[in-house]
Structures are given as C-alpha cells and as structure tokens.
Design brief:
heterodimer; A: 297 residues; mainly alpha; B: 431 residues; alpha/beta; 7-stranded mixed beta sheet; 5-stranded mixed beta sheet; 14 strands
Chain lengths: 297, 431
C-alpha cells in the first residue's frame, strides 16, 4: 500500500531530493560507475586506446597463475599483519597514557598526531633519508653502537619491515585520537567501582577499558585493515615494489598493469580480487565483533 | 590511505570532463588561420629555460599562442596523453620519449608526417639515422627526432691519477673497464668507501639501459629476425648480464645501496668524488656543473666489446591525429626543428640535436666533450618500436635485478624475462 504524504511532507521530500542530488550524483559518477566499469572491464582486454574486447574469465585465470600477483597478495597480508596490530596496540597505550590529565599533554597529542596529517610522499622522503645506507641517521646510530651498516630499503628482507615501521609511525596518531575519544566516553563510575574492588592498573585496563573500547577497536580494525590492504603511495615512492619484488602489493600490481603496461582488463580483475579480499576480511572482523556491533547499532 | 582506486578513477573522469570541456572551448574556426596551439611536453627541469625561450621566439615569429602543459615525468605525460587520445581531445602537438610512440602509432592515434615533410622540403635524411629509426612505424613517419642523450663514460681524473692510471687513456674494452674499476675501488669493513664503477641495482631505466648497452656491444639484437620473439636471452645477453653480476658480486666494484636516493644531489657518489667511473648521458655535465663544479672529470666513448654501442634517450615531436590545430602544430614542429632554433635550444640544455646540420654548430663540433656525445649518437641503439616496450623493459629490469642480487643466475633471469616478454609479444599489446 502506498503511503499518502501531506502536501507539506511532499514538498519537503522534493527539497530533500534536490539537496541530496549533488552528493548522489558525484557519488554515482566517481564511485558507483567506476566500480561497475571495473567489474565489467575485468572480463575484457583493454589498452585504453582501442575498444575493450570480451575475453570472459581469461584475466582471472591468468592472474591466479601469475607468481608476481600471488606474491603481491602475500605481501599485502604480511604488510597488514606488520602494521595494523602494532598501530592499534601502541595507539591504545598512548591514548591511555595521554588520557591521564597531566600538564602539557596537549603538546604530546599534537606531536603524535602530526604524522597523520603529513603527506605520505613527504613522510616517505624523510624516511628514505633516515634509511639511507650511507648518510642515514639509522646507520649512523647503529655505527655508534658498533653494528655494521644495514641496507634497509635495498635489502629484500628489510625493505618491507622498513615500510611497516614508517606506516606505524604515521598511523599511530590516528588510532590514538580515536581511542582517546573512546576513553573519554567510559563512565568514571566503572573505574571507581573497579578501584573499590581493589583492581590495580592492569586489571582495570583489562576488565574495564578494553571491553568498553571494543566498538572503537572494531571501527579501527576494519578501517585500518582496509587502508593497509590498499597501500600504495609509500611503496611507489620508496621502493617501487622492489628490491627483487619484495614489496610489491596488490594495489602496486594494479597500478603497474593498468597504467604502466596498459593492461586495464587485467588490472581490473586484480581490483576485483582485492575487493573480495577486503570484503571477506571485513566480514570476518564484523563476525568476531558481532556482539559489539549490535550494541553500537 | 583512502581508496586510491576510487581516487584514480575520479581523477581519470575529471580529466576526461575537463578535456572535453577544454576541447569545445578551444576549437578553431574552420578556414581561418590558427592562432593558438596546445603543446604538451616533458621539457622541464634542466630544459625548462630553453623551452620557454623557444616558445617565446615562436610566438613572436608566427603570431601563434602556445599553450604549454609540462610534465616532470615522461610516464606521467604518457598516461595523460593516452587518456586525452582515448577521449578524442589530445593536444595539438607533443614531445616525449620515443619509447611511447609505437603504442600511439599502432592504435592509429598519430598523424603521418610524410606528406607534410615533402611539401616543406624536409626528408628523413636530415636527421641522424640511428635517431630517426624509432620515429618510423610500418613504413610511415609518425614523429621527428629533436634531440638525444647518448651515453658516454664519465670518469674522475683525480681518482685515475691516485690509482696510477693515465687520465688520457680511459678504458677501451670490458677487460680494461673491469680492471680499472677494481683498482679504483676501496672498502672499509662491510661498506664501500669508493666505488670503481657505477653498477645498477635498482629497478629503473638505468638498469635496462646499462644491460642493453652491454648486450648490444656484445653483438646482440633485441628481437629475433622474424620480430616475433625477443632475443636478449641468447649468449650475448648472458655475457652482458654476467659481466654486470661479476662487477657487483665478484669484483665488488660497487655495493647494493651505494648512492641510493642521491641522484641529482651534491652527495651522489660521482659528484662527491667517491665513484671513479659512471655511464651517463649529457645530463651528467649539468649535474656536475650544478652540484660539484670543481670535480675533475672527463668523458670518453663507452668501452666496447664486439662493437661500439649504447642506448640513450631520444626525444621526438609528433602530432596526434585528433589534433584540432594541425596547421599551427606543424608550424611549431618545423620551427622547433629549424636549425638555428634547434641549436639555440640544445645548447641551452646540453642535449645533442638530432638534425645533422645543427650538429655542425661550433658549440658541438668544436667542443671535445660534446664531440664524444655526438660520436656516441652514431652508434646509439634505440629499442625497436613495439607497443609492448614498457612491459618488456619492466621485465628486463626486474630480472636483471634478480641476477645482481644473486637470487637467480644470469641465464635463468634472462630466460624468465624473455618468457614474460614473449607472452606480451604474443598477446599483441592490446591490453
């Protein structure tokens, strides 16, 4: 049955449509349409200059046999494991420390948040200098400690951890600020109750803070995992996926195939695989945290 | 770290919208003399001043306004150009590296220049043949070479003297190169203090350029005679790559990570005097002038094997088929290539003019340093114009790095690169 709207409500609905239109049009033009086009292009061969040709599932069959792409999936998971848990744990610890109302905390908050608003390219350039084998500060300090110079970004084993360290440094402030907001929403009465029960710092963190922060953790986990699955800029600037392919990730492969080799169909298929990866991991996250989700909603 | 894909797609669409809009805005009136020309180039950085002067001269002489759009990166320009061509709104005239030409020509996106040249009394023979080669696709001329950066051997004369070597006698063979490099190398513990020779270790153009230079010197040809397969995995390729691997891993005349990220700084090893020899194009002169003007150095032809050869960069000028102001575009191209204008331009940025007449200018013909570069352009090899170039070169770079890092043997690395390259050739470069 169709609902009858009063003339006033109808006018309001009309206005709402107009007010929503700009946002919806841009959303469709820049998100929905490209996503649908990516899905379609994944089944074609397309070099931008000549019209796409339908090839069915050939791109998918091809990339699933491509050792470079399979390695890039593994590198993406490795990068995520090396960045998301440390960022969340350190972010939480920092937030707890900064939540203590001490003097000058605002200075520290600002300091830890600065990297978040720094451009990735600028940050990468600075870290490249830190990691420079000849002139870098890191090798300089290691030398003082009697440790020989390291290759850092030129080493297939060290390059990925180098990128991870930079990312944790860069993203830490964001997790910290979100956790701080969460901490401030925890009623003081809970801590008072814990104190009366004789709980010290660690038990009160474990039994009060952490459970109360579960929705915040869920939010951070889902968004950081998605973010790290899409890592590209730092890799493009610092290692270009090397050395010997040790830091190539899925998005880097999409870029290489799409924009360097003009294999847009293949790149689109990779993008769809990345989408499925993110979807599955996000669903897993939501499942683990289902209880909290119900609370939040 | 938001959605880069979405951002990328948005940028692409925005660019298309902008181009479509701009295209309507600057459509010339039919029949009337064209008063403006859209020119895209990567003539930036060390070439910026020279380009500005050229455009000013042209505007004054012809009364046509040049709307220049510059790109700092040749790949970046290539990408934008592809999008613009696909959208039917390319610039009127563009200048970029010869590498990308075959792709555009194969897709029918370029204006053949043969008739225009005939009418203007120009011929292919005006240009250095080795540089003209890459401008021809399927028998038609799709671009004209403007200037080239041929590679030569730069060497630090002070380090030569310290190692009791004669700076007047630079190495002429691979054996001498290896021997000299070893003599001028110094290590302290695990880190190199002074490298004898610049050995590439990163995935970048220097890697493929160095390998292919040695490969061509060893007598190799890029493609098999029928043009259906690559041929760099043959004995000449293995010889060339093994030489590089030995220099890095056995002779240890350089170290992985040495000079990383220091290009175009006073600290880059050659500029800082901690690298005895390096293979570079004429940009090396500008680098030394700018960052280390007191450095005692000289240039010499690259050491040879079976024959002299080098690869290098060739910049060309071309007119997209869908250009709106083709007449003005052709006038601009002719002006650029007119001998006095070309001499003025190339002198200002230390590049080698592709036109033979321009090479006779005293600046080039009487300067011994510039003569070395001019000589090098004569044996310069330009990789065959094939649309799959980017992908093949990327495979060469990746696999050479595997060998230099000691992860694969030279033979295995080249076989793997050839497998990838042949697959690309078999697909025929259409995505």
């Amino acid at each position: 049955m169709k609902r009858r709207l009063s003339p006033g409500a109808r006018a309001q609905a009309g206005a709402a449509r107009w007010l929503l239109a700009p946002a919806l049009i841009t959303f469709c033009a820049f998100s929905v349409v490209p996503v649908l086009m990516t899905l379609a292009l994944g089944f074609t061969r397309y070099d931008v200059l000549t019209p796409p040709r339908w090839v069915g599932g050939a791109n998918y069959a091809d990339i699933m046999k491509d050792p470079t792409f399979l390695a890039s999936i593994w590198h993406t998971f490795y990068y995520t494991l090396g960045t998301v848990p440390p960022t969340l744990v350190l972010g939480l610890l920092l937030a707890v420390a900064l939540n203590a109302r001490l003097r000058g905390m605002i200075v520290f908050r600002t300091l830890f948040y600065t990297p978040v608003v720094t451009s990735v390219v600028a940050a990468s350039m600075i870290w490249m200098w830190l990691y420079n084998p000849q002139f870098g500060l890191l090798n300089f300090f290691l030398g003082k400690l009697g440790v020989g110079p390291q290759q850092w970004l030129s080493s297939p084993e060290q390059a990925m951890p180098c990128l991870m360290i930079m990312t944790v440094w860069k993203e830490l402030g964001y997790a910290m600020v979100i956790y701080l907001a969460g901490l401030q929403g925890i009623p003081a009465s809970l801590y008072e109750a814990a104190e009366m029960d004789g709980a010290a710092w660690w038990p009160s963190l474990r039994n009060v803070t952490l459970p109360m922060l579960r929705p915040v953790t869920l939010f951070l986990l889902v968004t950081s995992v998605i973010g790290s699955f899409q890592v590209f800029d730092a890799i493009y600037v610092m290692t270009k996926g090397g050395p010997v392919g040790a830091t190539t990730t899925v998005v880097h492969q999409i870029y290489e195939n799409g924009f360097r080799f003009l294999r847009m169909g293949r790149a689109s298929a990779m993008a769809v695989v990345l989408f499925l990866m993110i979807l599955i991991v996000s669903l897993l996250n939501l499942r683990v945290f289902r209880r909290d989700l119900e609370e939040v909603l | 770290m938001r959605s880069h894909l979405r951002a990328g797609a948005a940028v692409l669409l925005l660019a298309l919208c902008w181009l479509a809009w701009g295209g309507v805005g600057c459509r010339g009136g039919g029949g009337k003399a064209e008063k403006e020309v859209a020119f895209w180039s990567s003539l930036m950085g060390s070439k910026e001043m020279a380009r500005q002067a050229l455009i000013q001269d042209f505007q004054k002489a012809e009364g046509i306004t040049v709307n220049h759009q510059g790109f700092f990166d040749i790949e970046e320009q290539n990408k934008k150009l592809l999008v613009a061509m696909a959208g039917g709104t390319p610039p009127d005239v563009a200048s970029n590296h010869v590498w990308f030409l075959a792709r555009y020509a194969a897709a029918g996106q370029l204006e053949p220049l043969d008739d225009l040249m005939k009418r203007a009394g120009m011929s292919r023979e005006q240009f250095e043949p080795s540089l003209m080669k890459g401008c021809v696709y399927d028998g038609k001329t799709y671009a004209l070479p403007v200037f080239a950066s041929s590679w030569v051997l730069y060497y630090n004369t002070e380090l030569f003297k310290k190692a009791a070597l004669d700076p007047k006698r630079p190495p002429k063979t691979w054996e001498e190169l290896e021997d000299y490099a070893k003599r001028m190398t110094a290590w302290k513990g695990q880190s190199i203090q002074q490298a004898g020779l610049d050995v590439p270790y990163q995935v970048e153009d220097t890697m493929s350029d160095t390998f292919l230079t040695l490969f061509y010197q060893a007598g190799g040809e890029f493609l098999s005679p029928d043009g259906k397969k690559v041929a760099f995995d043959g004995p000449e390729g293995v010889e060339a790559l093994q030489f590089l691997v030995d220099l890095m891993r056995k002779d240890r005349v350089s170290q992985i990570g040495f000079g990383q990220g220091l290009d175009q700084t006073p600290q880059s090893p050659f500029n800082a005097g901690t690298m005895a020899m390096s293979m570079m194009g004429p940009w090396g002169i500008i680098n030394v002038q700018k960052y280390s003007p007191k450095l005692p150095y000289a240039v010499a032809p690259l050491p040879a094997r079976k024959r002299a050869a080098s690869v290098g960069d060739v910049f060309v000028i071309f007119i997209p088929r869908a250009a709106k102001h083709k007449d003005a575009a052709w006038r601009f191209a002719r002006f650029f290539l007119d001998t006095p204008n070309l001499v003025k331009f190339t002198k200002a940025c230390y590049q080698i003019p592709a036109e033979l007449e321009a090479q006779k200018d005293p600046f080039f013909s009487q300067d011994p340093k510039m003569q070395v570069f001019i000589e090098a352009t004569k044996t310069m090899r330009v990789n065959p114009g094939i649309p799959e170039q980017s992908e093949i070169i990327a495979a060469v770079q990746e696999e050479c790095q595997q060998a230099i890092y000691g992860k694969k043997t030279a033979g295995q690395a080249l076989r793997d690169a050839a497998t990838a390259a042949n697959a690309a050739l078999a697909r025929g470069g259409s995505g």
